[in-house]
């Protein structure tokens, strides 16, 4: 079986490309063909830079011994700092699409679901930055009650 690769261009920095494959994401400077960063994580399904904040969203999964799959949607501020994460066991999410404003995220799951998230939440300036991870649960329905229709 061929290995899945997901790529995403940085929205502001010319020549910066994130390449997700197998067990991690490599950040490449394609101008001089060097790896400038690496993020280790579970099996990558999709990656996408947010066009507004330039945070990298990673959709990854881990197959557990009991034949269930744990899915991780992780928001990375940089290669070392995860600022938010949603974890659940309701099927992989291999497709991430931003709206034209970069504030809404459509997440399409392999289990025939579509979720549209208000990525930043709401605030007076339109962007609600968080500096700590949310207290999210592994149950996606409880998480939805906790955060409403937002991923962050």
Compose a concise summary of this entry:
The chain has 152 residues and is mainly β. The chain has one helix spanning 140-147, and strands at 5-9, 16-21, 24-29, 34-40, 43-49, 56-63, 69-76, 82-88, 95-98, 104-109, 113-118.
Characteristics:
152 residues; mainly beta; Methylamine Dehydrogenase, Chain H; four-stranded antiparallel β-sheet; 11 strands; 5% helix; 46% strand; globular; disordered C terminus; WD40/YVTN_repeat-like_dom_sf; WD40_repeat_dom_sf
Describe this structure in words.
InterPro entries: WD40/YVTN_repeat-like_dom_sf, WD40_repeat_dom_sf. The protein has 152 residues and is mainly beta. It has a single domain (5-147), classed as Methylamine Dehydrogenase, Chain H (7 Propeller), CATH 2.130.10.10. Helices cover 5% and strands 46% of the residues. The chain contains one helix and eleven strands, in the order βββββββββββα. Strands 1-2-3-4 form a four-stranded antiparallel sheet, with no helix packed on it. The radius of gyration is 15 Å and the shape is globular. The termini are far apart.
Task: Explain the layout of strands and helices.
Elements (H helix, E strand, L loop, with lengths): L4 E5 L6 E6 L2 E6 L4 E7 L2 E7 L6 E8 L5 E8 L5 E7 L6 E4 L5 E6 L3 E6 L21 H8 L5
Antiparallel strand pairs: 1-2, 2-3, 3-4, 5-6, 6-7, 7-8, 9-10, 10-11
InterPro entries: WD40/YVTN_repeat-like_dom_sf, WD40_repeat_dom_sf
């Amino acid at each position: 079986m061929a290995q899945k690769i997901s790529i995403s261009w940085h929205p502001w920095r010319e020549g910066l490309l994130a390449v997700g494959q197998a067990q991690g994401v490599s950040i490449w400077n394609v101008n001089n063909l060097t790896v400038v960063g690496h993020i280790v994580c579970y099996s990558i399904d999709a990656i996408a830079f947010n066009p507004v904040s330039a945070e990298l969203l990673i959709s990854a999964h881990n197959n557990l011994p009991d034949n269930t799959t744990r899915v991780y949607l992780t928001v990375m501020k940089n290669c070392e700092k995860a600022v938010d994460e949603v974890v659940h066991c309701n099927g992989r999410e291999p497709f991430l699409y931003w709206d034209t404003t970069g504030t809404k995220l459509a997440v399409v799951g392999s289990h025939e679901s579509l979720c549209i998230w208000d990525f930043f939440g709401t605030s007076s300036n339109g962007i609600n930055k968080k500096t700590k991870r949310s207290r999210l649960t592994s149950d996606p329905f409880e998480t939805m009650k906790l955060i409403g229709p937002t991923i962050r």
